[in-house]
Specification:
Elements lengths: L4 E6 L3 H12 L4 E7 L2 H11 L3 E4 L8 H12 L3 E5 L5 H12 L4 E4 L13 H12 L9 H10 L15 E6 L3 H8 L11 E5 L6 H11 L3 E4 L10 E4 L5 E4 L5 E4 L11 H11 L4 E5 L8 H9 L3 E5 L9 H7 L5 E3 L4 H8 L4
Parallel strand pairs: 1-2, 1-3, 3-4, 4-5, 6-7, 6-12, 7-9, 8-9, 12-13, 13-14
Antiparallel strand pairs: 10-11
Length: 353
Amino acid sequence: MPGPIEVLVVDDSLITVQTITRVLEADPSIKVVGHALDGKKALDAVATLNPHVVTMDINMPVMDGIEATRHIVRNHGTPIVIVSAYASARSVAIQTMQALLQGAIESVQKPSGEIGLDLDMVGAEMIAKIKAASRARPRTAISAQAAEAARVTGAPMSWRSMPAGGTEFVAIGVSTGGPSTLEKFIPQIPADYPLPIALVIHMPEVFIPILASNLDSRSAIKVAVAQDGQALVPGQMLICPAGVHMKVTRDLSVRLEPGAPVNGCLPAVDVLFESIARGVQKRCLGLVLTGMGRDGTKGLQAMRERNHVTAAQDESTSVVWGMPRAALSSGAAAYEVSLGDMNRMLARTAGRV
């Protein structure tokens, strides 16, 4: 975008507002154009200032960050980065996850809680996420017309030409924008879906069980955090915990292994996909969804070379078209699919369409 990234800072602590402003404006490509001390004032400020990105606190008077996020994403489509002390209390982590499910793009931890005097410690992370968010499209801001256009125009490698049936297992990799994206289609998978699903998502450790619990409560299939040695079974999705890599064995069991980050990620999608390419003889579907970077492309290419089915989310319905773009542009993903078609693609993979 031309000119600096314009940011609205929302927090009920003026000290934190000043600190976040100083941290962000240390980067010449970012300009803080205003602030709000509660969620209601944030709605007015977004309407007046039309910022490119909003940083959002969770616990505020008048209107909290969850409700403010819902209104802003629904009515304005402005990307939001949550800045909260989610590591300090499970209740705050749950609230942060709720905001992510409402369409917030990312989250940044406040090192010292509400006052945030040492936000400099996460300055580089915050700046990187602000820049990524400025290029993002919040999930609920994508119109039905845009999704339909993507389905009509499509790409040469449409999911509709994917083999019908013959697939035994689904592996998914996702990053930025993942919670709201998963919330749109996982609850729609029928209880009798005949294929197991494994998922790697780039999220801090505190969020993984909350995400699993939330999706499980909304879904017909079972959703749980994976345990080492656990079998992948039909009608269940296992999510890799943070801090370990997840691999799948020949007999479709999960192996959780410590290791160094790959592509800067632990767990890494590439590790999951490469384990399938090396060791799983049954045909699998590898699917890359919204996210920053290139994680998943190398592993997806290895899967394709061994005759597994590979796909990635389209640009029109991706929150951040980084990982899917890398997979599609490199040829690692043979098929492209929109979020609106995700469940129909999964049904086709299982031989139901």
